[in-house]
Specification:
alpha+beta
Length: about 90
Amino acid sequence: MLSEFGVISQIPISLITVATTGASGTFKTRYGNIEFTHVDRTTENIMASTLVMDARPLRVARKREAYRDLVAVGRNLGMVDMDELNDDDE
């Protein structure tokens, strides 16, 4: 979602990372790799920090929550455009 919101310039091509309350793991598919990264969240928190988007079968993270997850899992923050992150458009 950070890529879609314009917060990072990288575009997922062969890897997508999904935050999950379940176990972490990576799955290789014919469409690319799907990496599930565990985050410790309650159901209430997940519902409040995600959006329903048209034509999407799953809820997606709000911009700030996607950033919070990026920080929580220790990913590279050098790619984050802080101006875009702080822009209130979602």
